[in-house]
Amino acid sequence: MMRPEMTDAGLSVAKVVIGIDETGAERSINLVGERAMTIYVDKQEIVTLMTIGSHPELLTLGYLKNQGFFEQINEIKAVQVDWETESVAVVTVGKQSDFSKQMERRTVTTGCGQGTVFGRLMEKLQKIRVPENHVRQSTLYALLDSVRLHNEVYKMAGAVHGCALYTADQLEIFVEDVGRHNAVDAIAGHMWLNGVSGDNKIFYTTGRLTSEMVIKVSQMGIPVLLSRSGATQMGLEMAQLSGVTLISRSKGKHFMVLNGAQNIEFDQ
Fold first, then answer.
1. Residue 240 confidence (pLDDT) above 70
2. Residue 70 within any structural domain of the chain
3. What residues form the catalytic site here (predicted)?
4. Where residue 147 falls among pLDDT bands split at 50, 70, 90?
5. Positive or negative, the Cα torsion across 127, 102, 162, 110?
6. Taking the chain, what is the end-to-end CA distance rounded to the nearest angstrom?
7. DSSP β-bridge partners for residue 265
8. Any catalytic annotation for residue 112?
9. Has residue 235 got a pLDDT over 90?
10. Residue 128, in any domain of the structure
11. What's the predicted TM-score (pTM) here?
12. Do residues 193 and 260 share a domain?
């Protein structure tokens, strides 16, 4: 598999500043850095994302894949991030310059960071059915315990969402960003770049289980979606349509299975 040429332009995600607490005393605190990043494909402006910039190349790849711009990684020749111009230049193999079909129909969705889904993704979801994957309750507990060890930016500065990809209780990748959509796109980029299948995977997010989140996970072929937050009605409907096991309110020993309870082995 041909991999695109890529920069390695990840940024430091937190900055120390001085604040005044409730007693009037100075305190050093960490604030999450946030940068605008405009994606250009063959010099055509596609979108501007707000991101902490920890995985800009993976975020770019995942965004383009999840929004339906490309299907195969070998369609992309290079991904070059330049923070001086706050831009990322994507060069395609075939110099595809007309993305009018992808840009003409968009639905604005709820969520922080960027949250647009191109209309045709809804049509694509009709054809997606994720593979079944049976998960033990004890595995979910081990995963939730593991997540606590990786929320590094959140522990330092807050103001971010985290997403993780697991195989059983083994962590594949963990990403934090200002928007959960950015974090999930970065993981999608990792999977696409490295040929990682969604089979037998569990996706964890700190964010809400919205329709867009379920659509993206369905596209990635991941059968189980787990969140510490709640779900929307349309998020549940999308999970029922694609067969995603949807688990909300996952914290400590508590969780709520909204779809796919037959895929959970309650062993504890």
1. yes
2. yes
3. 112
4. confident
5. negative
6. 43
7. 136
8. yes
9. no
10. no
11. 0.77
12. yes
Task: Kindly tell me the sign of the dihedral angle through the C-alpha atoms of 125, 129, 132, 133.
Answer: negative
253 and 151 within one domain = yes
pLDDT band at 55 (very low <50, low <70, confident <90, very high): very high
Q: How many domains does the chain contain in total?
A: 2
Answer yes or no: are the C-beta atoms of 162 and 151 closer than 8 Å: yes
Return all residues near 17 (Cβ < 8 A) that are at least 6 apart: 28, 29, 30, 31
Q: Which residue has the higher pLDDT, 166 or 158?
A: 166
Choice among 31, 50, 103, 112 that is catalytic: 112
Give the domain range for residue 239.
135-265
In a domain, 119, yes or no: no
Mean pLDDT, rounded, for 72-77: 94
**Is the pLDDT assigned to residue 222 strictly greater than 90?**
yes
Domain CATH code at residue 83: 3.10.20.10
Q: Are 79 and 184 part of one and the same domain?
A: no
CB atoms within 10 A of CB 237: 13
Whether residue 140 is found in the same domain as residue 100: no
Tokens of 174: 């963990």
Structure tokens of 92? Answer: 């395609």
Judged by average pLDDT, the poorest of 81-95, 103-117, 186-200 is: 103-117
